[in-house]
Design brief:
The complex is a heterodimer. Chain A has helices spanning 16-35, 39-70, 73-110, and strands at residues 119-126, 135-138, 151-154, 159-166, 171-175, 182-187, 192-198, 203-209, 219-222, 228-238, 244-250, 260-264. Chain A is an alpha+beta fold. The relative contact order of chain B is 0.16. The chains are: A alpha+beta, B mainly alpha. Chain A binds chain B through residues 3-8, 10, 12-14, 19, 22-23, 26, 29-30, 33-34, 38, 41-42, 45-46, 49, 52-53, 56, 126, 129-135, 137, 164-165, 172, 174, 178-182, and chain B through 13, 16-20, 35, 37, 40, 44-46, 48-56, 60-66, 69, 72-73, 76-77, 79-80, 83-85, 87.
Chain lengths: 270, 89
């Protein structure tokens, strides 16, 4: 008669010898890789995963195109008129932005600080939630001139992270919001210097003295000759008994929907 | 019915396409219902694909592998005390 309820010593629980072998084997692999650069192994893993990620990216794009094609004419017309209003409202801001950038670049050139930048657009192959580390994987690597330390911007030009591992055709980008990661930032119109601590999923926290004036909605920027928008202040928490106030802020985009990023090449290769 | 092959396939595909908690759920199922060696390989693969040095782990790049190892031994220990689980998967 077949036993339906194996209780003990059925072989499934494993022998101590096998368990010891597993522990020693895993410890050996991790120990070895901790002492030697594992970039080649990462590169191999990414090479295997790349066709799957590329296929997923293509399928997602195709699905979006198909869904857009089958939507009703009325909803398309409504969205068209809504987007037209948005474009009209932002066109003057865009022109002003272009003029200010040109003026900024001209002034830097006159003062001997021209700052030409070269960047590449990258498709996001894997993003947070799929990645448990608050990292994203992009489809450009050393072959496109991307190296560790390059700054990564969102489609809207918001600084989101830096490249921490570049392979031949892919790169791993660590987001500034990775838990515990500290980044130097300027807060508000007076550019108060502070250290932002990442809390995951695009969220940050900063502690400042209570007397410092800051309002919700103030822009947080990154220091540098080309200041980048980093985040927007969302909530200010102050306790009368606490000499410090806590400012919570987040990147103005949803990382689970990010599809393209711009990578600023640090070595300015054309 | 042999579920081990489809479940293992789903587990490895979930590392590429689904949120990490789907992979973690599949890993728990594999650890308890099968031998669980795939879980170790999956954790290692996850680290190779996504890991980056972050302060909470002091730059340690094999957090998923360590978690998979912990799950592997927890499942093995728990199986000694479980009355019912499928003999074959």
């Amino acid at each position: 008669m077949m036993t339906n309820f194996p209780r003990r010593h059925n072989g499934r629980a494993g022998s101590p010898f096998r368990s010891t072998l597993v522990v020693l084997g895993t410890a050996f692999v991790i120990g070895t890789l901790s002492f030697f650069p594992q970039s080649d192994l990462v590169s191999v893993a990414h090479r295997i995963a790349y066709p799957f990620w590329s296929a997923q990216f293509s399928v997602r794009n195709g699905a979006d195109t198909f869904l857009a094609a089958v939507r009703s004419k009325q909803s398309l017309a409504e969205e068209n008129s809504r987007l037209t209003r948005v474009v009209n409202a932002t066109e003057s801001l865009r022109l002003e932005n272009v003029a200010l950038r040109d003026e900024n670049e001209t002034l830097k050139t006159i003062l001997g600080r021209p700052t030409p930048e070269y960047s590449v657009i990258a498709a996001v192959l894997a993003r947070p939630a799929v990645s448990p580390y608050d990292t994203i994987v992009v489809d450009v690597g050393r072959s496109a001139g991307v190296f560790s330390g390059d700054l990564v911007l969102s489609e809207a030009g918001v600084a989101v992270g830096t490249v921490t591992q570049s392979n031949e055709r892919t790169s791993i980008v660590t987001l500034f919001s990775s838990p515990g990661l500290e980044t130097q930032v300027f807060i508000g119109p007076r550019a108060l210097s502070a250290i932002a601590t990442g809390h995951g999923a695009g969220n940050f926290e900063v502690h400042l003295p209570r007397g410092v004036e800051i309002e919700e909605g103030d822009a947080i920027t990154m220091p540098g000759i080309n200041p980048r928008v980093f985040a927007v202040a969302e909530k200010i928490i102050g306790d009368p008994a606490d000499p410090l106030q806590t400012i919570l802020f987040k990147n103005p985009m949803n990382f689970s929907e990010i599809r393209f990023v711009e990578i600023v090449l640090s070595k300015n290769r054309p | 019915m042999n579920l081990r092959v489809p479940l293992t396939t789903f587990f490895f595909l979930s590392l590429l396409f689904f949120p990490w908690w789907v992979s973690a759920s599949a890993a728990v199922a594999l650890a308890f219902m099968g031998e669980g060696y795939e879980v170790l390989l999956g954790g290692f693969l996850s680290d190779l694909l996504y890991a980056a040095p972050v302060p909470p782990f002091r730059g340690f790049l094999f957090v998923s592998t360590a978690a998979a190892l912990a799950l592997f031994f927890t499942a093995r220990a728990a199986k000694r005390f479980l009355i019912h689980y499928p003999r074959t998967l």
